[in-house]
Specification:
The chain has helices at 13-24, 32-41, 51-60, 69-72, 75-84, 88-102, 115-119, 133-146, 153-168, 191-211, and strands at 2-6, 28-30, 108-112, 125-130, 182-185. It is an alpha/beta fold and 212 residues long. Helix 2 (32-41) packs across helix 5 and helix 5 runs parallel beside helix 9. The structure holds cytidine-5'-monophosphate.
């Protein structure tokens, strides 16, 4: 079984995916980390005239075990990820990694931006998890403050809105909501309620598939 979960930054898709993976005992890939790793590896080179080729080289030889998740989950890595994610050859290299992960026996859960549209268009279940920008900024600010990072909600809201806009206009991306995706708006939901709602959607789709 393949479950594809897409949505914007801090929508709750990562937490929901991890909990679904635990529930269904499926391996889970946070595909944003791949782009973040390439962005992070490029952090000193993004102003180089040949930055695109350098990013392609990094994507083609990516080994996630060389990175600490802590370094990849910063706001700066998110901005760099969004930049390298515009390079078609970077996307192509990372697509291979995602397809390998998705093709393992028993299935997998992948979360990202284009899982239901481009990576796994045949996924058994597709969810599109979203929340309004202010709520997403609130969540991200809380997470960063808890880690001791001194940021304000205004700064994070501005970053989230810029990244939303950059991602939406990414000419190499396929960041639209798949026609057969089920929408889940987590704006007013706690983590547990959002997970329960996601689980219900997944179970409904699986039950429908079984009976048809
Ligand atoms: O989901 P996350 O915020 O970690 O993603 C970081 C960035 O990586 C996104 O803003 C997007 O530009 C890029 N990305 C992508 N395709 C994916 C996942 C993430 O282009 N499947």
């Amino acid at each position: 079984m393949i479950i594809a979960i897409d949505g914007p930054a801090a929508s709750g898709k990562g937490t929901i995916s991890k909990k679904l993976a635990q529930h269904f005992d499926l391996p889970h890939m946070d595909t944003g980390l791949l782009y973040r790793a390439v962005g992070y590896a490029m952090r000193d080179d993004l102003d180089q005239p040949n930055w695109e080729q350098l990013a392609i080289d990094k994507a083609q030889s990516l080994d996630l075990s060389h990175f600490h998740e802590h370094d990849l989950t910063t706001a700066e890595a998110g901005v760099a990820a969004s930049k390298v994610a515009r390079v078609p050859e970077v996307r192509a290299a990372l697509r291979e990694v995602q397809l390998n992960f998705a093709s393992q026996a028993g299935g997998a859960i992948l979360d990202g931006r284009d899982i239901g549209t481009r990576i796994c268009p045949e996924a058994d279940v597709k969810l599109y998890v979203t929340a309004d920008a202010f709520t997403r900024a609130q969540r991200r600010t809380k997470q960063l403050n808890a880690r001791g990072v001194d940021v304000t909600i205004d700064e994070i809201l501005a970053q989230i809105e810029k990244r939303d806009a950059d991602d939406k206009n990414n000419p190499a991306g396929a960041f639209f909501i798949a026609e057969d995706a089920h929408l889940l708006d987590t704006t007013k939901l706690s983590i547990e309620t959002a997970f329960q709602a996601a689980l219900e959607l997944v179970n409904d789709v699986l039950a429908q598939k079984k009976s048809s």
